[in-house]
Design goal:
Blueprint lengths: L1 H10 L2 H36 L3 H50 L7 H46 L1 H48 L1 H6 L8 H48 L5 H43 L17 E9 L5 E10 L4 E5 L6 H8 L7 E6 L2 E2 H4 L1 H7 E5 L9 H6 L7 H10 L2 H7 L17 H15 L3 E5 L7 H14 L4 E5 L3 H5 L3 E6 L2 E6 L1 H7 L2 H13 L10
Parallel strand pairs: 3-8, 3-9, 6-7, 7-8
Antiparallel strand pairs: 1-2, 1-4, 4-5, 9-10
Length: 582
Amino acid sequence: MISVVRMLSTLLDHDGRRRLLRVVATFVATGVLQGLAFAALVPLLVALFTQDWNGVTAWAGALLGLLVAHHVLLTLADLAGYDLACDLLDRTLARLGEHVARLPLGWYDADRTGMVGRMASKGAADISSIPGHLLRPMTAAVVSPVTVVAALLVLEWRLGVALLAGVVLVFAATRLLSVIIGRSEAGYDTAMANGSARVVEFALNQQALRVFGRTVHGNELVEDAFAAQRAASRRMLVTGFGGRGLQLLAVQALLTVVVALSVHLVLGGSLDTATAVGLLVLSVRFVESMVDLGELSSALRIAQGSLRRVLDLLEIAPLPEPAVPATARDGAVEMTDVSFSYDGSTPVLDGVSFTAPARSLTAIVGPSGSGKSTLLRLAARFHDVTSGSVRVGGVDLRDLGTEALMADVSIVFQDVYLFEGTLRDNVLLAAPDADPARLAEAARLARVDDIVARLPHGWETRVGEAGSTLSGGERQRVAICRALLKDASVVLLDEATAALDAENEAAVQEALTALAADRTVIVIAHRLQTVTAADQILVLDGGRIAERGSHADLLAAEGRYRDFWQQRTSAAGWQLVGEPAG
């Protein structure tokens, strides 16, 4: 429990930590008062058995005072705990939101969706439940028995020693239960997060799934994720019941020892019956707290797991930012001896150096896995290079800073995500203050004006979740329109026309031509038209630049590029020929 309080304090600011300490101190005080109230039952029962009415009056008054003080303090503690829980929920969500917004773009992948979503929902709720629902009864379940043991050591030291030994045993069993729950809970949470990610993926890819008949049944990834969830839930229940059984067995053994010892002392004449009855009543109430301790410990361990995962996420360092960001002089992009590895051991890029002059078009070609997308991601600082440097306008990206870099760079990837909202909202995301004339010009250049004319409500048409009401080519044009409206000096294109039909490809190609008119453009190219129009072509192979030069120069060199060109021209000339009649 102390470790949970320490973990919570790292999530809070200075004022929050002070409030947490006050709340914990109040919870401890309520536990002490509860234990003292239980202990006061012994002399009260003894006075009743011996008909000592003065003693009955005195101890009844003391018990009443303890109960009133306990309930008043309990009410104040609960109110303070709930108030802290609400603030903690707000602070957890705020810190998560602020932190994930600062993490490098390369940190994100498909599996992060379920994890972050679960942290922001169940994880945040679990954390807020610690001061709101768990910490007070958990504190009472520990402090009250300890107080009772201390009282018993005064009232009847032999029973006190027996209970003290029993407390150690029960706490050990409870600790074992907590460890068991913690281990199974980690696997359970991972399975639940993976299941959430697969459900989101299933919902966003309905078109492809329905084409291949994978609707309600047959989606192995979702079904496997649900099966993993069921297995993790079963493991958690089975191991939890086993640990809970051990804890209850320890509690039962403690009660049996106390009863047997009390009977032995009474029969031996060293303990009177009235005192024995009072001590047994106190011991039973003590055992009830021990039983509650097991359930509360399991719930607290689950909440602690959520808290640890949030703190681990907050420990992930964002990319370093300069104290005083530099200013790029133009849109030239330079890479000098750049090497990069995702896992720290396997190089994806190795010693890459090139310069894309301002207002030029650089095409990147190469086989799958050669490092083309990684090169573009480094130019946008999704990651920092392992070695070497990347510069925009003569300034290292690490000195330029993320905010300044994002102001200078537009990115158009093959998979375009549009937010649920109007077409206007999605385009104006790039420049919220753009006037109508500027918006109309960007739409014309990107051929989005055709889309606006087709849609029933024009600019005010809602595009659906992830832009589901638009085709892939139309989403590409919207992305290019945003890039035009942003008017950044550097544009990075990742296979923007790789999977489009002829009509959309022509429209997107026109939009790309407009986009490249006065900007530095680096494009991963698969289309011949893009390659031939490039000022320079980089041929990547195995993470290195195998060839570079103009289209004509590379064809004359008769190297890898010529092979690429021949493959593309051969593919472009393919046609379906029917069987001859007759």
